[in-house]
Amino acid sequence: MSAWRNGGGKPFAIHYEIFKMDPKWKDEEELKNFLFDRYQKKDKLLESYYKTGSFSSESKEAQFPSDMILIGFHILIMGLFALLVIFLLSFVY
After folding, report:
1. Which tens digits make up the pLDDT trace of 42-75?
2. Could you give the count of Cα atoms lying within 13 Å of 67 in the half-sphere of its Cβ?
3. Closest among 92, 73, 77 to 1, alpha carbons compared
4. In Å, what is the CA distance from 11 to each residue of 58, 71, 84?
5. Rounded distance, CA 13 to CA 28, Å?
6. What is the pTM of this model?
7. Taking a C-beta distance cutoff of 8 angstroms, is the pair 67, 1 a contact?
């Protein structure tokens, strides 16, 4: 909603990787080495992103519904909730 209210919004990117748990990370030194390696890769990735404007050639753009669809959906949900409250209150009074 803030992007709609502010007349658009800045593009954003999310980069993630999934790692399977490794038993060697029980050792604090191994875990520390892994985390330091991840930070170095993150810094290289950000440096590349700032230069090229893209994370990699494998990047995909996610499609999001328009703001009007989201607003309409919220209005529908609020209307359904109001009808439910009216229905339930009809048994009380």
Report:
1. 999 889 888 887 777 676 777 777 778 888 999 9
2. 9
3. 73
4. 18, 20, 38
5. 31
6. 0.49
7. yes
